[in-house]
Every structure is written in structure tokens, then in C-alpha cells.
Amino acid sequence: MFSNVRKVISQSPPPLEELKTFIEDFNFDLEAELSLIKNQESVMRLIRKNCSLINIVILEAVVEHFEIHNAQIYIYDYKREIKEFCRNLSVDLCLNEPFDVVRTSPPLKCETATYVLGWEATEHKLKDVTDIVSKSSGKFVKLINIKSTQSITITCSFPHSLTEALIIKLSDNLELLKKNDLMELTVGYCTIWKKQKIQEIQESLEEEVQEIKEQDKDHDKVNKPIAKSVFIARYGYYVIDSVDISFSEGEWLEIYRKDDSFYWKGRSLVSGDEGDIPSSCVYSMLESLQLLEFILSVEEVSLPILQKIRNDSSSNDKKASYFLKTINDDPIMISALRQDKEQHDKGVTGSVDWGFDRVSLTSPSPVQCNEVISSINNNFKEILLHSSSTNSTITILSSTKLSTLNLRTVRRFEIWLTPLTNDCIQYLCILITNNRTIQELDINGHSISDRGVSNICQALEHSSTLTSLDLYHNPLITSTSGQALSHLLLNNSSLVELNLTETSLSAESILLILQSLSNNKNIRILKLDERHEETCINTYPNYHLIQDRVDWWGY
């Protein structure tokens, strides 16, 4: 069949660049290979390599798109024969046999999907396999092989660029798969679903009962280890604390215990190093979809972008696609939603601590936030917001009472362990722009990312009241923020102290900031990570002119 189709195409070939562009749009993962191709024959070899004996979707798409009518008859006949072949062939006769047209290197683990079904190979036909795969995952998934022990394992490959879409589609079709005796379903390193045996469930319940008994004796006991799961690093991370591990962007990390919201125990699947991993730097597609399910189920969502997704009348697939784009645009959104979900699931009751001239809110509810806003008066100089949900953070930051001159005495605003999404940052920028009395702003502990830093810096460039900005312990402040912080020092004349310790700023970014410090005579203290000290001292020729104002912090 392929030989006949190739002959027809060669008689009246489509323009090479148009053909390459179409294939790239069809499967973005082929972009690199297509860029090296210089002729029609090489394109056809690439198409053949990406077909299997029972899946010729890419060839069929080319023939249909370029309206190669004489080739369509060969496609039709082949599909009819394959359909009949699959209907009659028993699964046990094709076990461990490759389905590739051309023998190629095995796909990467992250490009494979695996179904484990409780089927007897002798009792099912190949068509049963192709039907369950196509109905649950679509036409872009290609069958690699089928293996059997006590059950059958179906391994498929797919374009890596379609990982998100595949997980969404499989999740939507999970009930169909369960009805077909699904035992386990994985995509890449992520387990989408696994059937537990009665014995395993019983053992798990017994373990939890025992733990409850133990907790009565030991209230300080840490959380039990969770089931091993694999996350992907959205950002590279350099060790800040001695118990941390370093990793690169895109690295696979195995998480085996979540002691708190912002630091998890795990190991790198690349280096094998074990230690603490900042949760704000990692994600998994499965968890992202669980967070989407959470915002669709809760009664109140304050963030406008999430309200839009929740109230959209389109399908769940489109909602999921929009949500994934949102968390990609706003890196700290995942951390914020994790905290929201955790507090919701645990039924956390927040607290408000009133001091003589300060008020401290820890995991407050929106109701508690409104009570604080109503009660606060000109006797208060400090507001501390700790471990706040997005709903409560929006309630505080959007308060017109705080952002106007009606409240003249607040001098310090401190935010801790409160991930500030784009919407939260916008309200904070309005607050610090309109309230001319705030002199100290602390945003600490996994609370801000590069995008937030950029917006804050723009709001502060011409501020004449803020004297101290503390961005301590924010691993999502990366080298991307170097330019914004440099411009801040060039344009702001009120800042006296700037703390950038325990961030992911690179040495190059620090050098850029030091150059701006030379032109800013008002900054008296610039706190930086000690790990950059030697590089900066040896690289920046005018360091001796600013050395008395730079404070290098170790861990």
C-alpha cells in the first residue's frame, strides 16, 4: 500500500515546504526532523516511520489535505483489509510483536501510554484492543506492542506535545476504561488510575487506623509518606539550604512525602540526589487536573480568571485547556491553588491576633478579613498576612479602605507564605501606589514570582514613600527579574534597603543589579546570597565603590 501511495504522490508531488509545514502542524514533535529534510523522498520516509501496521493516520491526512485522489483508493482498501484483519486476529497471536511499519528506536518513557486490562489474551481480538485505544485516546496514539502475563499490557506512543490533551481525554474516558476491566493506566511517569486490590485497601485502612492511635501519643508526628509520584520541574533550582537538592528545568522528580505545602521530600530521577524540593518549582499534569476539579466544585472563587473558567459554558475539555494555559501564564497559580485546596479539605479555621499597634492574620477566612478591615483604625502601624488563601488575599488587597489615604498610620505590610497570583499582584500594586504611608513591604516565603516582581518594580519606580522592600526566600524569583530590579534601582529614589536573599537570581542578574546600585546612592543595604559573592567581586570592576552597602548572606 505505502509503495503504491508513494508512487502516486511522486507523480504530482505537493510543494515541499507546504508538505513539511502541514506535517509539522499535524505533529509538532517532528519539527526538528523536518528541518533537516531537503527532498520529497525523505519526507515520505519520515511519514512511513510514523505509521504503524494498523495506524496510517499521518499518511491519510497528507493524502486528504493535498487532495491526492488517485492515492485515496489505496488508503481505503488498506483500511478495509486491516479492519477485517483486526476483527479476526486473536490477541494471543500478536503478543510481543511490533506494530511499526519500520523498526525504529523505542519511544521515550514520557512519550508512552500504557493500559493494563484484566483480559485473557485468548478471549479477545485485536479489534478489541484498537477499539479501546481509539475510543479512549483518539487517533494520534499509535500501538507499539501488546504483552501478557495474568493480564494484558497495551503500550502506545504519542507526540509529546499532546501530553496534556491526552491526559484530559483519558481522564474523561476513565469510566469507559473501567467498564473494560482497567487495572492501571499511565501516561509517561504519571499514573492516571490504578485499581487497588481488596487486600491493599484493607492494609491501607489498617495503617491509617494505627497512625491515628499513634498520633494520640505523639502530636508532633509528621505526615505519613504519600504514594510515590513523579513531578516535572517547571524551573531550575539551585540549593538554597543544605537539605535541598538542585535540579534543572524539565527534570523528573519523584516525590515521596509532603511534610508541608512548600517543601516536599523527594529525589531527582536524573542525579539520584535526595532531599527537600520547593513545591513551587514543580508540577504534574494529574495534579493540575485535580486542581481544576477543585475550583469547579467549590462554592466561591474570587480570582476573576478562575471565575471565567468556572462559568464558561463550553465543554470540560475546553475548560481544561483554558485552565492549563492560565497556570502556564501565571506560574505561582499552582502554589496558590494547592494552598486553597489544602485549607478547604482540612477545614482550616483561621486566626486573627490583635496587638497594640499591629494585626496579624493567619489563614484567615474572607469573613475574618472583612472584620479586620472594618475594625482597623489609625492606631495600627503593621498588617501581617500569613498563609492566606486567594479568596482572603483578594479581600484584603482590594480593600478601598487600605488603598486610600483614609488610613494614614500603616507603615509596614508583611506577606508570608501567601502565593500572589497575577490578580493579587494587581491589587497590591494599586494599594502601594495609592497608599502613600506604607514604608516597608515584605513579600516572603514562596509568595511571589518573576511576573509579580516586574509589576511591583514598575509600581515602585516613582514611589516616594517605600523605604524597604524585602523579597526574602522566593525561589520563583529567577534571572528573569534581574532587568526589572535593575531598572527599579535606577529610577527609585526612596528605597533604602532591598533584600534579595534566598532567591533563584543568577550571578549575571546580580551583576546587573550591582551596576545599577553604583548609580543609586540612596540604597544603604542590599542583601544578596553569599553564593554569588566571589563571582561578583572578581567580575565587577567597580565593586570596591559599593562594597560597604552590600551584605552577603550565608545559610
TrEMBL record:
<protein>
    <recommendedName>
        <fullName>SH3 domain-containing protein</fullName>
    </recommendedName>
</protein>
<dbReference type="InterPro" id="IPR036028">
    <property type="entry name" value="SH3-like_dom_sf"/>
</dbReference>
<dbReference type="Pfam" id="PF13516">
    <property type="entry name" value="LRR_6"/>
</dbReference>
<keyword id="KW-0728">SH3 domain</keyword>
<feature type="domain" description="SH3">
    <location>
        <begin position="226"/>
        <end position="287"/>
    </location>
</feature>
<dbReference type="InterPro" id="IPR052201">
    <property type="entry name" value="LRR-containing_regulator"/>
</dbReference>
<dbReference type="InterPro" id="IPR001452">
    <property type="entry name" value="SH3_domain"/>
</dbReference>
<dbReference type="InterPro" id="IPR001611">
    <property type="entry name" value="Leu-rich_rpt"/>
</dbReference>
<dbReference type="InterPro" id="IPR032675">
    <property type="entry name" value="LRR_dom_sf"/>
</dbReference>
<keyword id="KW-0677">Repeat</keyword>
